[in-house]
Amino acid sequence: MNDTVVVTGGSRGIGKSVTEAFAAAGYRVALIYASRRKEAEKTAESLRERGTDAVAYLCDVSDAGQVRRVSDEITQRFGRIDVLVNNAGIAQIKLFTDTDENDWNRIMGVNAGGIYNMCRAIVPQMISRKNGRIINMSSMWGISGASCEVIYSASKAAVIGFTKALAKELGPSGITVNCIAPGVIDTEMNAELDDETRKELTDEIPLERFGSPEDVAGAVLFLASDQASYITGQVLGVDGGIL
Fold this sequence. Notes:
- The protein is an alpha/beta fold.
- It has a single domain (4-238), classed as 3-Layer(aba) Sandwich (Rossmann fold), CATH 3.40.50.
- Helix content is 47%, strand content 16%.
- Strands 3-2-1-4-5-6-7 form a seven-stranded parallel β-sheet, sandwiched between helices.
- The radius of gyration is 17 Å and the shape is globular.
- The model has no long low-confidence stretch (mean pLDDT 95).
């Protein structure tokens, strides 16, 4: 396979598992990271050792200029971009009354603005080829909302609206746009939860366990596959049935 996937936030957690799943499926991989260079380079090196053409790129997805530059570099390196996985995101747990405009601008800038910037840079080449797959990462909190995560929830709700609208616009060009809404996933973001909190959350999940990054990666890979060619504008919950 000569298809290329771009994965933002690809150095760890869900993003890392996504890069590994696509690599195993024969894709060439461009992973984008914002700050953890050592982890990103290690992930890319691990993929190359398994025979995958993989490169890590430093980029703050909230910066449109950086996104345009990196997208051009990736296109020049691999020839084209077939699949875009917008996984990069940041979270915050804080009372709404303790937040300020800097919190809003940063979280919305990465979680929603980053997806806009990436799509704005890459969609034109997909339109010209009449083919492409875009998978955006939302959250179950983008559907239901979460106390003490108002800005995060708003940003992930924006991802859902963006996905549904863009899917309608790009459908005539043969491009599908879908969204994943993970539930409680066992990643570094949730590693600091105490045992009591983990038990309370597990008790709320019908499947009685946290999800794994691999659970989410499998769903992303499916939406990029030929088997999902007639699926677009959808929100796929990977949450163990909690919603």
